[in-house]
């Protein structure tokens, strides 16, 4: 079974390059010998990676997106840019609608003069059905559901080679803001003797599908290479774990006792239904990184200061 | 049966006030004794109507929308603003996504501090299902389908009293760009002896539901008064006519012979399916303006210069 994508040495444009998945994607595709154009919103210190060149661009700026696409002339685009915090989406719902929908279309429109370019947009499993009755769980879900419908429809309208990935919860070393990263950071702080109190987990029975981000990035490469235009691909480990199971694994790997403040189980059924992932939809791909490796790497990332290297 | 809405004398904000439906809506609600705040994008010559005050605002300007809503403090909002030309949407699809989706959410977000405010958004029957396989007929339909999903979801997320109207083809005197207006303008030009050639109609068998805009505006008033939050209301005459039938009625009403260049019938089945309106969903409302009155009024509008009065 092919474990790595074998894209020819060509140009890939990656948006959200300074993010958690973006960092891994830049390393992975540069490692395949491709020229990587990493798009970041703000100029900041970024890891120097052979084969990766960074470009600064706010994707809300339609003209700049057009200029950039013309200058880079990518063969592949991996669109990871956007916002993905559920709590923040309640505080500023408009920001989520602005960031996750229109900039994606600006990018797709700018790519119309390059019909051979293959595009993968990173969606999420946290979408809902855009038919009556409309029951969005949160504004983040609404923004990503609208993005999905917009992207798939755009692909149909203009005949571009656009695919959508729907990953489950991605974990691994790097600047994630997910459950495992928060727990890893907490444990690393406790190991350094910093007073942190108990780690709060809202519901021990909540089940989630966790997948290592490096497995996901490999799947993205295979989709860019082999995916069917207009295709929607699920990317998940196919295995669910309760938060209690995950926390137990982390606590066993910790070098110091860690207290957990368990919340009520009330919302777990809701979470369960939403997170029940249907396995992988990428032909020839399967996850290879064991859960314990992800957990060790997360702890190592935060033990070494979080950001020095991924 | 109640033929007019009986909204108490309060403040209604109407976007797209300089448009075809907007002009009729301003007159109608002012005629009910309400204070009408008509929102127009650009300052231009607008009809002076007792009870109507115009405000200039580009709905893409989020801050200005917030200021305006605070200043007007509406009890009702009728959102008619947006773009609605299918051919233009092919030429500039991004403009349609920008104009029809985000500004609607800017408006709804600005209204969150006014939970008693009742809002009606004007949609269209030309929407498609935002589920796989995604088959938008044109970018205009995509923009309005995304608007519909966004509006209905927003209503659910934030508990605002928002309703959606899905009107059929609105006709009547005024600056419309629809089939009947184009034919009416052509006939008026022919009557003035201006050389215009034959009027081209793509398919004589295409069936459409035409409704007088003044009947529609009355339905909007009843929805604003009595509609259920989250409700989607069809507003149509319930009667379909072929373009040939409509053209024949116009030609009979013309004061001079008018030539028609009939196109092929190839696309008529598609149109038929899309335009097959399910009648009215507004309790207590039914259309009262006969088709011949609409046609006479359209001809009269263009005979008198188009714009002098509606």
UniProtKB/TrEMBL annotation, chains A, B:
Residues 12-235 form the NAD-dependent epimerase/dehydratase domain. It comes from the Bacteria. InterPro entries: Epimerase_deHydtase, NAD(P)-bd_dom_sf. Belongs to the NAD(P)-dependent epimerase/dehydratase family. PANTHER family: DTDP-D-GLUCOSE 4,6-DEHYDRATASE-RELATED. This is UDP-2-acetamido-2,6-dideoxy-hexulose 4-reductase. It comes from Paenibacillus albilobatus.
């Amino acid at each position: 079974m092919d474990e790595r994508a074998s894209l020819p040495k060509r140009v890939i444009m990656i948006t959200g390059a300074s993010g958690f998945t973006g960092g891994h994607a830049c390393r992975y595709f540069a490692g395949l010998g491709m020229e990587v154009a990493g798009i970041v919103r703000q100029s900041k210190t970024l890891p120097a990676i052979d084969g990766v060149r960074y470009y600064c661009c706010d994707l809300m700026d339609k003209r700049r997106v057009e200029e950039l696409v013309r200058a880079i002339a990518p063969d592949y685009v991996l669109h990871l840019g956007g916002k993905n915090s559920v709590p923040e989406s309640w505080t500023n719902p408009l920001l989520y609608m602005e960031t996750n929908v229109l900039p994606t279309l600006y990018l797709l429109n700018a790519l119309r003069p390059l019909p051979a370019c293959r595009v993968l947009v990173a969606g999420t499993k946290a979408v809902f059905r855009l038919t009556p009755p409309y029951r969005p769980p949160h504004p983040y879900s609404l923004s990503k559901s609208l993005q999905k419908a917009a992207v798939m429809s755009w692909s149909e309208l203009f005949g571009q080679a656009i695919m959508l990935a729907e990953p489950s919860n991605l974990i691994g070393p790097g600047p994630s803001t997910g459950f495992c990263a928060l727990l890893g950071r907490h444990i690393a702080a406790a190991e350094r003797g910093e007073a942190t109190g108990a780690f709060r987990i809202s519901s021990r029975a909540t089940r989630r599908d966790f997948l290592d981000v490096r497995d996901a990035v490999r799947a993205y490469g295979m989709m860019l290479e082999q995916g069917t235009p207009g295709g929607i691909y699920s990317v998940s480990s196919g295995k669910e774990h309760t938060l209690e199971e995950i926390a137990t694994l982390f606590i066993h790997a910790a070098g110091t006792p860690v207290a957990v403040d368990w919340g009520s189980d009330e919302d777990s059924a809701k979470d369960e239904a939403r997170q029940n992932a249907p396995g992988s939809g990428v032909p020839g791909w399967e996850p290879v990184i064991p859960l314990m490796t992800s957990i060790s790497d997360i702890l190592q990332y935060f033990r070494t200061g979080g950001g020095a290297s991924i």
